[in-house]
Amino acid sequence: MSDSLKTNNHRIILAAADLGVRKVRIPVAMITGEKPGRTLIITAGSDGDEYAGIEAAYRLIELYKNNKFRGRLIIFPVLNIPGFENRSGVNPLDNKYPKHIYPGNIKGSPTERLIYWLDTNYIKNADFWLDLHGGATDEKLDPFIFFYETGNEKLNILMKSLIMATSAKKIVFLKKNICQKAEILAGQNIGYVMAEAGCLGRRDKASISKHLEWTKRIMGVLGMIGIRKNKNIHSKVYRKIVEYRTDRAGIWIPAEIKNKNIFKNQKIGEIRSLAGDHLKDVVSTVDGEYLWSKYGMICRENETLFCIGYEGLELKDMGGKL
Question: Which residues, 6+ apart, have CB-to-CB distance to 6 below 8 Å?
């Protein structure tokens, strides 16, 4: 059984998902275009405290309610309902991030059950999955898009076309076998991209607009809508990232980063004890560019504090190097 909310000639279904310890209703809009084409799934709110992507997903539903596109759109504006209610990125029912789990498990933890539900009912029947993310309430972030190289050469060609078409200033095109989730999906001929825009949980106009524009670009390459040729030739493409995790708990004091370019051995922050004593400097191990960082003060053991993209090339200079 499912309830529905009728809003301006489109319908958002509240679909029931059994997470084991709790049943939730997840909003989903299924919109069929005026002509046949590919199926694109868009998720937002996988991290329940990343609001720019959630706002953008609701606007996409409104934007395409007139069916003026080819193919099918399936949009989940808030996937992680428990996290959204708790104002947290993790699902508080098991303290797991939905974005880190695929394909899930029908008999697993609440988050594993959530992703299994999403996969078996929707993802397996799609051609492409766009996952909207951004800076959480305690994260600063420069907008960028994750693309993934996999063992599926046909999808790799598509990814390269998407990279050339995007208007993002920063792009991460991770090398093969780094993202297991993307590899598994590619084995089913399903492409996966994660878009990051938004800072400190804000729903600012600029971040929402980036999500909308990037989605249109992806839809254009997929043949779902018409798009103009991308004139942005100044994008930076990074093939690797490095995430800095702490080996101790304490207080995180980020360094003031005036230039987005990060250099090897540059201090990017420090960890202090609750008594205010210096415990450890956090130093970059590579030359690269800032992607995102933890802004909140609390620092938990094994928590990611900073992310840098490296091994970068200018898009205009890449030619056949992708």
Answer: none
